[in-house]
Amino acid sequence: MGHGGTVPEAIETVGFDVDFDGPLLDLPDELWHESLDMYVLNVVKIARIVTPMLIKQGGGAFVNISSMNTIEPRAPYPMSTLRGALHSFSKLFGDRYARCNIRMNNLLAGFCENVNLSEGVRREIPAQRPATFGEIGQVCVFLASEGARYINGLSILSDGGMNRAVR
Fold it and tell me: What string of DSSP letters covers 104-167?
């Protein structure tokens, strides 16, 4: 699950500064717990409710909208470390329920059209623009479709080429 255009109160909007010297160790435990609930436990709770129904109907697919910061955490967004936990949970879930024809994947979205990007950030994106909601939606539709029935337990980037690491 993404969190849209808002961030928890304890984090200010700081941009995309590589020299960020934020208060990583000063972030309160409450913020870590709130973020764990928002980014990971919401998926676990939904999976607990829905999985038995999917087993009865013969299968299905979960598509979690996460963040490009899952695989390349950036200092201004420290809560992105918890998105790694969602990635790991999705892999374990996919391993366990594939035999029931149930899949779980994550879409690691980059900046979307609802974010006001500075020119510096825009230049960092090889596509030179944020994603449209339609582009993100089309990837989700594909991941939920029969055409993707052999894709399971993966986190797939849709970030305009922003992440540089080889996967």
Answer: EEEEEE--BTTS---HHHHHHSTTSSPBPHHHHHHHHHHHHSGGGTT--S-EEEESTT---S--
